[in-house]
Design goal:
8 helices, alpha/beta, three-stranded antiparallel beta sheet
Length: 340
């Protein structure tokens, strides 16, 4: 058991400095994430290298559309989370404790790199549960990946302190962040986090300070975050803080867990969200979790031609050259890798 990063003593308690929950943990206790424990006055990470899920996924499944489209990533996750979203699809691992999951297996950083190479994956994604909370492993694994020439992706709720982000900043290429709402009250109700502002601030920092490629996802939930003010607030923030070429994925909610009483998101609501995003100046707004024809295509904002045609997670049309529309040369903000 190693010592955790980013903490300080607080009498007999320890003060965790990793995320904005600012946990002060008594001896034998754990932080809100459930995986960082005060062991006799020292903070220890309980899940270093312990993997609950590992798979080869299209990068589009994250979803990430403008970074290495058409490539596959080795996706890896553990257990625990810094939020407790009432509609979490991965609740069986996000709400699990390390000692209660007998499916956990150890996968060290070097073994992770070797597995990615074995599966011919040019990149690794830290995903499935919240990757911030096992930052010690993410740091070591991401460093090993970068040294081996692999790119790295964080699929995250974005709830991290500046110190935490700056620790992994040099080693992460993509920050795929959920923005679940645009006000603190909804964040407290929906995911038991005190404020949306750290999520917004760190997404901006990821791009401006560390040069990460950033994409934003908002799962549109009826009666909770589907009002015009929320959608307008999120999309206008993306334009001003991250830039108009930043992809915004507005995805369909399905009834689940604590929110099983709500209906699925109507498709017209998603289309309205896309229209609002475009009105605010976003050039690429995608409809997720639905089979709307063209909803996930990348369309050139200048000439209107389809630059990337998508069928589910598969790319079946490609008209991009050096990150720009092959028809008219307009920059699309796409980082190319091995395209189809």
């Amino acid at each position: 058991m190693r010592e955790a990063l980013l903490w300080e003593p607080d009498g007999e308690r320890v003060h965790c400095l990793l995320c904005p929950h600012d946990c002060r943990i008594a001896v034998g206790g754990r932080g809100i994430c459930g995986v960082r424990e005060n062991d006799a006055g020292m903070l220890r990470p309980l899940t270093y290298g312990l993997v609950s899920s590992v798979a080869v996924d299209p990068i589009e499944k994250k979803p990430v559309f403008h970074y290495r489209p058409g490539t596959e990533v080795l996706s890896v996750g553990s257990v625990g989370c810094s939020m407790r979203c009432g509609h979490c699809q991965n609740w069986n691992i996000s709400r699990a404790r390390p000692e209660s999951n007998d499916g956990l297996q150890y996968l060290g950083p070097d073994a992770l790199v070797a597995l990615a190479r074995e599966r011919s994956c040019p990149g690794v994604a830290f995903t499935y549960n919240e990757p911030v909370i096992w930052i010690e492993y993410v740091l070591d694994a991401a460093r090993a990946c970068k040294e081996a020439g692999l790119f790295t992706v964080m699929v995250t709720n974005g709830y991290i302190t500046p110190a935490g982000l700056d620790l992994i900043g040099p080693w992460i290429d993509v920050w795929r962040v959920d923005v679940k709402a645009f006000d603190d009250g909804t964040y407290r109700e929906l995911c038991r986090a005190r404020s949306v502002h750290p999520v917004l601030d760190m997404a901006e920092r990821a791009k401006s300070r560390w040069g990460m490629h950033v994409e934003v996802v908002t799962n549109i939930i009826p009666t909770i975050n589907d009002d015009d003010d929320t959608l307008r607030g999120i999309s206008s923030w993306i334009v001003s803080a991250l830039g108009p070429d930043t992809p915004w994925h507005v995805t369909r909610f399905f009834p689940y867990l604590d929110l099983a009483h709500l209906p699925p998101t109507p498709i017209p609501t998603l289309e309205r969200a896309r229209a609002i995003g475009v009105e605010q100046g976003l050039r690429f707004v995608y409809l997720g979790n639905v089979g709307v024809r063209g909803g996930e295509d990348t369309v050139c904002p200048a000439c209107g031609r389809v630059a990337v045609r998508r069928d589910g997670y598969r790319i079946d049309g490609w008209s991009v050259e050096r990150g720009a529309c092959a028809h008219c040369g307009t920059a699309l903000g796409i980082v190319e890798g091995k395209h189809p």
